[in-house]
Amino acid sequence: MRGMRLAALIRKEAYEIVRDPSSIAIAFLLPLVLLLIFGYGVSLDAYHITVAEVVDHPTHLTASFLGELDRSRWFRPRLYPDMSSAKQALMEGDASAILWLRSDFTRRAYRRDNAPIQLTVNGVDANRARTIENYVQGAWQVWQQQEAAREGKPLALPVVVDTRIWFNPALRSRDYLVPGLIAINMILIGALLTALVIAREWERGTMEGIMVTPVTRAEILLGKLAPYFVMGMGSMALSTLMAVFLFNVPFRGSLLVLTGSSALFLLTALGMGLLISVAARSQFVAAMVAIVTTFLPAFILSGFLFDIQSMPRIVQILTHIIAARYFVDILQTTFLAGTVPSVIIRSCLGMGVLCLVFLGLALARFHKRLD
């Protein structure tokens, strides 16, 4: 390999990027749009939950409890005259839950007897149903504590839970989603950028001219990869700045660790794109294959949205060949928890193996011949 030939190929590819604004749009505009859409549009939190309230016998005690729901940012209560109308609202989707305070609620509460409240939740979305149940239970416990403090009596609970939340004490789903979204952006950008480069040479008929030159296969692939690596790292920097300053996601890790792991992941993504580009001689086919084989598996199997430990065992094993899985772990750890060596080293080893596999396969599949 000669440095002058490699530099000439890199310069040629840089000119191609300047003359083709679509590559710049993929590298910088696409992550900007995706981060804005997912950062503001996707949330695992449940806000403004419409609760149908039914009170058989209104008293100051029932009003006190319902006032706790009214003051909460999670709920949007609506009072219904009876259970039949509340059930109808639940069936029609006008309410997500029904809270029923029966006629003996106040009497049993004053007798220190068990004063139950009935909560009926729309369970079509199981995760949202569990979230609503937890929110209502939390509001119920807060109200009990306030009533006990107002009466100057200790709250008799068999077990008192002292909850401590690490890494994301505000319980903002955005702090969890945005770092993972950066990995999804990078795998899509890296694969798309390089999936088109070899196929574009074939479609334009310029590959024949490259093949008659004395450049080697490795020089051609490195010449294609280097400019897009620089663009990808620039896109990573843009995504990180947006996460910290636009979405206010805390960054508690090492910037050096983040840069090094990002470079390794980007090389893996570029290697996947090069392998696709070598195998497909059509830009359209290469783009479709890149989206199907990189973006969709990364979105579903990386742990970005769905917990890997909750997946079937065979699927958990399959996730080990998804490079985004390792980078999502690194991003969520460095942003929220800090630099945890065991997580960083384990994930970097996984990405390193995949990087060598994809780049090696791309080099082995690429031949300087027309057939």
Explain what this protein looks like in three dimensions.
- With 371 residues, this protein is mainly α.
- The chain has two domains: 234 residues, no CATH class; 103 residues, abc type-2 transporter like fold (3-Layer(aba) Sandwich), CATH 3.40.1710.
- It is built from 15 helices and four strands.
- A four-stranded mixed beta sheet has the order 2-1-3-4, sandwiched between helices.
- Helix 3 links the parallel strand 1 and strand 2.
- The chain is elongated, with a radius of gyration of 28 Å.
- The two termini are 24 Å apart.
Provide keyphrases for this structure.
single chain, 371 residues, mainly alpha, abc type-2 transporter like fold, 2 domains, 4-stranded mixed sheet
Q: Give the count of helical stretches.
A: 15
How large, in whole angstroms, is the Cα Rg?
Answer: 28 Å
Principal-axis shape equals: elongated
Strand content: 5-15%
Tally of domains: 2
Q: Which stretches are low in confidence, meaning pLDDT under 50 for 5 or more residues running?
A: none
Give the SSE string: HHEHEHEHEHHHHHHHHHH
State the separation between the terminal residues, measured CA to CA.
Answer: 24 Å
Number of strands: 4
Question: Structural class, from helix and strand content?
Answer: mainly alpha
Instruction: Write out the strand line-up for the largest beta sheet, numbering strands in chain order.
Output: 2-1-3-4
Largest sheet data = 4 strands, mixed
The share of residues in helices is: 55-70%
Mean pLDDT, all residues? 87
